[in-house]
Specification:
The protein has about 140 residues and is mainly alpha-helical. About 60% of the residues lie in helices and about 5% in strands. Strands 1-3-2 form a 3-stranded antiparallel β-sheet.
Length: about 140
């Protein structure tokens, strides 16, 4: 009898455990189109193979690095095409870096504002709170 290597498939719950995310996360990425619709068993259970696990790990890693769903769609469309060009991935990444730098600037401004406001707080039992006052202005 010839031995043929059948790729091991897992159900959504096991896939979620293996990659360390929630079932809902996988379901969400399927709805957004980042993950392809999985194959189903005769009983109707969704099953995932190694390629889908690698893709999910890629998505989770990219999300950890702050890539938006739209940015990921762009990256994955390049990955899925037969015309992956490193320069295009580089350009998408450069745009993402610019967004990150803008967020850092915004966060520094936010931190400075909140530090200034909170420094005025006496931290006492009085109902007069400069933080609340500043937020209402």
């Amino acid at each position: 009898m010839a031995h043929h290597d059948v790729a091991r498939v897992v159900k959504r719950g096991e896939l979620a455990m293996r990659v360390g995310c929630h079932l809902e996360t996988i379901r969400y990425y399927e709805k957004t189109g980042l993950m392809p619709e999985p194959a189903r068993t005769e009983a109707g259970h969704r099953v995932y193979d190694g390629d889908q696990e690698r893709r999910l790990r890629f998505i989770l890693r990219a999300r950890d690095l702050g890539f938006s769903i739209e940015e990921l769609k762009g990256l994955l469309s390049l990955v899925d095409s037969d015309h992956l060009v490193c320069g295009e991935v580089y350009e998408l990444t450069r745009v993402h870096i610019a967004d990150i730098r803008e967020k850092i600037t915004d966060l520094r401004r936010l931190e400075k504002t909140l530090s200034t406001i909170s420094a005025k707080c006496a931290r006492g039992n009085t109902p007069d709170c400069p933080i609340i006052d500043a937020l209402f202005t």
